[in-house]
């Protein structure tokens, strides 16, 4: 009996990510297409491989019995194709990072890397999803976190500096607004990061005791959304300086206080232990360390 290869690959992606939506993003298809492929495979086999639960999908007993071997098989296929591409003499690498960092920091600087390494092709994948460096054929992941990536090579690049900003229109509507100290920010609507952690930490760093007002206001999972909300005059936002440089330079946002403070997380370059043996990966890591040091 022959089996539908695409359906098997889809099953592996859902089994790995425990989510139809996340698998769809990885495969660059719609969630309905993923669900259809799973139905095709289950109908062909006559067994249920995945079951929906409150927080996503889980493997059934039958699914769990075949998932490890299928995952290993597709991993070997990917490695073989990657080796074939390398044997053709192509020098390329794939870099995965989150969209705000790619747009505001990495992409504007990539031209300098190309000037130094004309023979290396860079592919940038912008995603906030967790990636499997080996399975997803990612050479370097640039991530914002605590640097805890077991079994991988980790290089600390930089800690983003947070600064409070607001739109000129917002400051005009707050007639008589006086923001001379960090505690003055608590008198105005605050715009937060997704976990509402940055404002309380920033205020504490500037000597402001715990205050319930530090948790008020809208929250945004993406820093770009946070910046857009600030531009729209919805409140004060605490954003990484690197992300808002253009908005501040053009006057769309105003830095309301010159009291930056490094965030508790940093940016890291993460690779497989053997990846740096490849000249193109080593060249990229050397370059991005130098850029971050500036």
Automatic annotation (TrEMBL):
Q: InterPro entries annotated for this entry? A: LysR-type_TF_proteobact-type (IPR058163), LysR_HTH_N (IPR000847), LysR_subst-bd (IPR005119), WH-like_DNA-bd_sf (IPR036388), WH_DNA-bd_sf (IPR036390)
Could you list the residue ranges that cross the membrane? none
List the Pfam families: HTH_1 (PF00126), LysR_substrate (PF03466)
In what residue span(s) does the HTH lysR-type domain sit?
Answer: 1-60
Q: Which GO terms describe its biological process?
A: DNA-templated transcription
| CDD domains with a match to the protein in the record | PBP2_GcdR_TrpI_HvrB_AmpR_like
Entry superkingdom: Bacteria
Task: Write one Gene Ontology MF term.
Answer: sequence-specific DNA binding
Entry keyword set:
DNA-binding, Transcription, Transcription regulation
What family name appears in the similarity comment?
Belongs to the LysR transcriptional regulatory family.
The name on file for this protein is Gcv operon activator
Q: Which gene encodes it?
A: gcvA_6
